[in-house]
Please model this.
Amino acid sequence: MAGEGRYGLHAEVVYFDTEDGRQTLPERLASISGADPSWGDITGKPESFPPAEHSHTVEDVTGLQAALDENPSWGDVTGKPESFPPAEHSHTVEDVTGLQAALDGKQPSGNYATTDTVDAVAGRVTALENAEPEISRSESSDLEARITALESTLQEPDPEEPA
Model:
């Protein structure tokens, strides 16, 4: 991974071509005057910091052209849209990697009870449980049948909902 220099220089390795051959920056600094070169021993440094704004050609940067050549040209990229933004389109579930597995982990669609509905049913059940025994057996049976029917309805999928 490239490091960030004090002045924003990003490089994997900086090389110097010397009489003794190519050297990395640490090798070059060590060869100038031992392990601890003085600022005056360093040659080719900018006169001011940060250095004046300037540019380089691809050839000025060792290995840049080879790195660029490793990337495909736009013409070599396959499967790209013909226009941007791409025309409106759709995909099947199979077109999207991992979508079916994600959908399989979801609750099926249906007509599920809302919190308000559950609270209302619970309130009615509590009222029945706490009611005075003045309710007749037929009224109690009727209420139980209505609650059972409501619970069944809440558990059945909505026929108008897509499966």
